[in-house]
Amino acid sequence: MESSSRWLLLIHQIPPRPSSVRVKVWRRLQRLGAVAVKNSVYVLPATEEAREDFEWVLREITDAGGDAVLCEATLAAGLSDDEVEDLFRAARRADYERLAAEARALAEVRTDAEADGAPAPELEGLRRRLRETV
Q1: How far apart are CA 17 and CA 87, in angstroms?
Q2: Residue 110's pLDDT is what?
Q3: SS3 category, 35
Q4: Is the pTM higher than 0.90?
Q5: What pLDDT sits at residue 119?
Q6: Which residues are within 8 A (CB) of 36 and not within 5 positions of it... i.e. 6 or more apart?
Q7: In contact, 61 and 12? CB cutoff 8 Å
């Protein structure tokens, strides 16, 4: 990205019905690692990958009859870069804590497949989610 902007903001308005669109967008934003800085305002670091991800979400929103805008931003007041970084840290910390709890629970339950050397499907799911979280 050639801009000196540090953040990308996705600002959206989604119709209340059907509610499935709101849920789908929220889940996608969660998977991308975006954090909400205000109602319907999500932020990611300004990278080409994040821009592409937000552009996909923007298209989903507008295709569903909503409105969205993607902005490059530097924070001037009200919220500092450090505070936004803290939002990301808190969100990822919660993700890692969930993964660790699930891994501990899985370690307590050994399956026949694991005894044969084949990884349990649950283990593959944990590995996938860990890669996504990282």
Answers
A1: 29
A2: 58
A3: strand
A4: no
A5: 61
A6: 42, 43
A7: yes
Which of 49, 54, 7 lies closest to 29 in space, CA to CA? 54
CA 17/CA 104 separation, integer angstroms:
40
Do residues 35 and 87 lie in contact, with contact meaning Cβ atoms separated by under 8 Å?
yes
Distance CA 134, CA 132 (A): 6
Q: How many residues can be counted in the chain?
A: 134
- In contact, 60 and 24? CB cutoff 8 Å: yes
> Which pair of structure tokens corresponds to residue 79?
């919220």
Helix, strand and coil percent figures for the chain, each rounded to 5: 55, 15, 25
The answer to whether residues 91 and 26 touch, using CB atoms and an 8 Å cutoff, is no
| CA–CA dist 68, 83 (Å, integer) | 24
Interhelix angle for 48-63 vs 19-32, to 10°?
Answer: 180
The series of mean pLDDT values per 10 residues for the chain, 134 residues long, is 75 91 92 91 94 96 95 83 84 82 75 57 75 69
**54/60 Cα distance (integer angstroms):** 10
